[in-house]
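Q: What would this complex look like in 3D?
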Amino acid sequence: MFTKEQQLIESKIKEFCAANELPLAELKWQPIPFAGEWGFATSFFQTAANEARAGMGGKIPVPQRAQQIAEQIRGQIGRVEGISRIDAVKGYLNLYFSTSAYASRVVDEVLAARLDFGRGAPKSERVMVEYAQPNTHHSFHIGHARNTILGEALARLVEFAGYETIRASYPGDLGLGVITVMWIYEKFYKGQEPAGVHERGQWMLKLYVEATALLEKKENETPEETAQRESYEAERREMYRKWDAGDADVRELWRVTREWSLEELRDVLRMLDVKIDVWFYESDVDAPSKAIVDELIARDIATDERPQGGAVIVKIDEKLGLTKEKYRTNVILRRDGTTLYLTKDLALAKVKFEEHHVDRSIYVVDVRQSLHLQQAFAILKLWGFPQADKCYHLGYGFVSLPEGAMSARRGRLVLFKDVADEAVKRVLAVETEKSADIPADEREKIATQIGMGALVYSMLSVDNNKDIVFDINEALSFDGRTGPYIQNAYVRANSILKKSKVEGQKSGDLRPSTFDYDLTNHEIELIEKISRFPQAVEQAANEYRPLVMAAYVYELANTFHSFYHAVNVMQTEDENIKNSRLRLVAAAKQTIENALRLLDIQAPDVM
RNA sequence: GCCCUUAUAGCUUAAUGGACAAAGCAACGGUCUUCUAAACCGUCGAUCUAGGUUCGAUUCCUAGUAGGGGCACCA
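A: Here is my prediction, written as structure tokens for the whole assembly.
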């Protein structure tokens, strides 16, 4: 936000160093880590070290020499417009901004840009984010929720940073798991179907668990039990074969049951405010992927071992000329001619590149599939796609429960819908106690915003590569470093502005901010935090880390709460100061709103 | 065996090649006739071990220890 001053000073420093033959190191700017006054700083340790290495300086230790340089440069720079003071401290050069000029600049910029405050300049690259890839015929659990929330936040960040962004979902709608549910439905439950989208989804999960139990080999089976199990198994295999052969009845059953799952998925995405642009289904790329196998064989990328009774494989390391094993070798077509996950991922990538003209492709997928995706990217490179280098696997740690990994078979599964319902229930209980004045018809809506805010924030406030042990009480906590804490800061800002309108001021009528009074530390810190939002957006988007934004907005909310407590805006006597403070509150509210939106968290007006 | 990943306060998590390692929870103690206390203020408390690189390492490198994950016809 203040690059102009920075550039001016940089050029002065470079001038000075050139004149004095100082081997200046790259200048890195950072905020001065001292609350109470804003500014930016750089250090000269590296320069002093360069000098010592070149044998140019005396025998002064680096820190002291850095301080000398900082002092000399300080003397050299002189007065700069907008900079009130320059200090040389412990090897650092600290430049302090003029208080009122800086404050009004920040606040006016936020209020001019509004929802666009922090938005990056448009970039030419088209980015696709693939997330929300649950399997059909199964229910959406809390692990899927982490994936979807992470992907959505990432898509919003990348989009806001200036990239054209496409959101893609890739549900797994085929495979043995799918057939298993279809088999038991056909055999024991045909014609049944619970009312309610989520009830039906969860019912299918129940069928899956039951079917798995029937098909699983048990210890000490009687001969009759073994025969029974084997006959079930044969039926399932036969159903899979028929599906693959395109049998009309089996395909119809598949279409119907698959739609039950997709309806549930669409509702979950609606709850999470996720709007997918492109739907890819595993079943869509199954057939095209077989053609790809032939192409890869023809190009001598893949090796066909079918004549020897084997599969079609790609010796990735060998083809890349690697001597050390890295990507190893993988199968792209089974000996029976059916495709694998890898085959389909290759076909999908081709569609992404050729039909959607994607320059950069981000895969938000569980970290356990890291090798698999690296293999896929390596094959894409062998295949000659230039975008292969811009395929990025955003791996995230997996979600488990205090009692261990989630497992449908063991009945150890936490479903997203259950957690979301529980969240709303808990918020409603708090609301009844604390916000009795909220009209009944609004309560449910606000409770949903807050409950989901708590859940979403708990998922985003942990870095991507960390595992999460899901504890519902922690995830739905409303105290401390949580979504509701941040939403509450927004609500408080809103209530001040509302009150100011009641008393006759419209925020639109406020004069431009002057801030020509002695600002309190609380105001100074709040302005400092607001001014850092654009950098937080950039960093979060560049590093693919929603956590950066989650941490930022918590700090912003925390600073606002402190300010709120220490400074009573509406009781400010001086009209000019009050005006400036109202502008500051409006800027803080806007920044919190923008940050929350990037995290897929809604900002309620009251709570 | 090889590869990836993690190790920070009692617990859950941040940050950083350099100016005091930051929060929340828990514990303890304060603050509501006030712009709604889902808040604020205070106390206590931490960089796994050993080497190396560097003027400077908690951060980078190597090894070790401990946890998690992966390694061709599952997805």
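A: To summarize the key features: Residues 171-275 of chain A form one domain. The first helix of chain A runs from residue 3 to 19.
Q: Very helpful, thank you.
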